Each structure stands twice: as structure tokens, then as C-alpha cells.
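Record type: monomer structure entry
Structure origin: computed from sequence
Chain ID: A
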Amino acid sequence: MARVKIGDIDIKERKQITSDLFEVITDAKTKKETVGFLMGLLSASEILMLARRVQIAQLLLDDMSYREISKKIHVSESTVASVARWLYDEENKIFKAKIEKLKKGNRKSIKKQQAILSPYAQLRALQEIINNKM
């Protein structure tokens, strides 16, 4: 898909389409529905970009500097700063707690994640990412 420039889309349309996106995501009733929706909608690259931001948040919680994170995972310091602003915003404290939980190792194993994904044919891209087959 071609890159979209925010200014090319009318502000009223931007508000409507982003509202529609969030409505669909928040209406998902199960983790499988959410995963299926996102995997059907996003490319493997887009999923990795989002996953990388979660990784940045974890490294920030490990007290790594912006420069260290930038060098370690090959992202710009401005990307790190953007994630830091989001992570430390008071309104996002629930997400900070979830990322801290991940950091402490309270997460499902890769095998359990693959078991969740395996029933969905459209999730092969993510399985390839996990299994390093790309």
C-alpha cells in the first residue's frame, strides 16, 4: 500500500476513518478475534513495526538510554522519544503496567502463541516472523 500523507486526507474524513478503526478493534470480543483482525489488516512489516515499539518500551523500562536503544535495535532516537512520551504519559499507565508485566517474564511462551495463531490461515506471515522464515 502506498504511504499516506496525513495532509492529503480531509480532517473530517481522518476523524471518521480513525474512529471506525478504533471501533472495530475495541469491538473484538476475544484475543483470537483481535489477532485475526489485525493479521488480516496489517502486513508482516507493519506488525513488526508495532512490535518494535513495544520492545522499545520494554528497553526504556530497563533504563536504557535513547542512544543505547537506537543502536541496539536500529531505530532512530526520535522513534525512541516518541515511544517514551507515550509510555510515560499518565493516561497510558495501564499499558505501562502491561509492558512491565511482559518485561518480568509473565508472558505466554512462543509455543503457546503459535498455538493461538495456528488455526488461522491468514496468520502464516506472523508464524513466518516468529519462526524466522522470511
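Annotation 1: Residues 10-131 form a domain with the Trp Operon Repressor; Chain A fold (CATH 1.10.1270).
Annotation 2: The chain has a mean pLDDT of 82.
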